[in-house]
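Hi team,

Below is the intake form for 6-phospho-beta-glucosidase from Breznakia pachnodae. Please confirm the fields before the structure is written into the shared record.

FORM ID: S-0412
PROTEIN: 6-phospho-beta-glucosidase
ORGANISM: Breznakia pachnodae
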Amino acid sequence: MNKTFPETFLWGGALAANQCEGAWDVDGKGPSLLDHTTGLTGKYKDLHEMNHGRRLTEVIDTANNYYPCHDAIDFYHHYKDDIKLFAEMGFKALRTSINWSRIFPKGDEDKPNEKGLEFYDNVFDELLKYGIEPVITISHFEMPMHLIKKYGGWRDRKLIDFYINYCGVIFHRYKEKVKYWMTYNELNHLHDNPLHAGNVVVYEGENSLEITYQASHYLFVAAAKATALCHEIIPDAKMGCMLSLSTIYSSTCDPKDEFATFQLKQDHYYFSDVFIRGKYPGYSKREMEKEGITIKMEDGDLELIKENTAEFLAFSYYRSTTHKAGSTTFKDSGGVLGIKNPYLDTTAWGWQIDPIGLRYVLNEMWDRYQIPLFIVENGLGFEDKISEDGVIHDDYRIDYIKQHLLEIYNAIEDGVDVMGYLYWAPIDMISNSTGQMKKRYGFIYVDKHDDGTGTYERSKKESFEWYKEVIHTAGKSLLNK
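The structure came back. Fields below:
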């Protein structure tokens, strides 16, 4: 009997507005957090002040600084050609995000920017023309900078109203075009990277944990309100949560290491537990009591969270890490990645390749929540080189994806409900963790470089035709060999 993935499986790719669109100040768009962020190039290559080693500047100074997201790969003006290439590969779905500051330039206005709304109308129409389902993240690290400066981001409860106003506008506008929504991106990095991952300002001398716990409550309330509003406006839509779930192993079988690793994983479960189970878990309550933290709530908050839970769990998976009791080396995806696992290969950026870890995560999350799981990020960043024949022979990327897809299939055979696989990223674009172009993920090469030069010309890598065949055969090309 031939093996195959489910007929409903959503094959495709994933992007983020701030990493691909460019056009940072075009057609009324306001500056976002990442528009103030420099890359790891030029004079800032050795600075590691904040934001995954990238530097946040108070005032945008393009004369002296390079801001990678300002131009990115100019998807804003190339989206038709790029989507045509995605369609050629046979994509069933494309995940991307809406840039909040393109719709509300400052974030706290009453009326939206029509030009911004028109852009996403055009993008979604182009996707639907080819039968590609839009999967949309409402907020993906790109909060309007005005909300950061004036309110401190999500540390202020006023952000709930601004976010819901934004959600109402896009739900009404795109109710006939978008059926899959996600509230935030990788929110479970809020505690270890408040500004970048959670758009939360923590001022010098403050208790970061206290500020981020309070901010997480506002984010939970906003997500619940957004979910209720989405169901009211788009009854057939699905609202999910999105987290980073690259798994963590204990570095030894010492019970102290095992339990410390378990507790570290709970720091990440905290977000999915509230989003999906609709209540604060006991372990988070204990930590707050231990730290003397009391979350300020309003009447009805807990009921809202309980009644409006996520309908699917979307997540990113790139690698696994290891942890030891007392270790301070574990950071998020842009920092030091725990203790090296001797059983795994490592990329040039220090990420250890672990396909079986993806099967582990899928089974772990399915057993914990019993709701559909959606892999909306998985990929290999590599400094691709153009060969003498003019082609990028990225067999390393093909092998990476193949091994992960095989483990996804194994998880499906285990009984896990997997909605789909959206590869990050189908086209080269700015790396979130480093701000670099040379850390390339795509099936499609973009002639853009870390110094800002390039023609933006697109060309297919060897992996393009390989992934096209995988989708065309619903996985038979790799399962039945």
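SUMMARY LINE: The chain has a mean pLDDT of 92.

Thanks, M.
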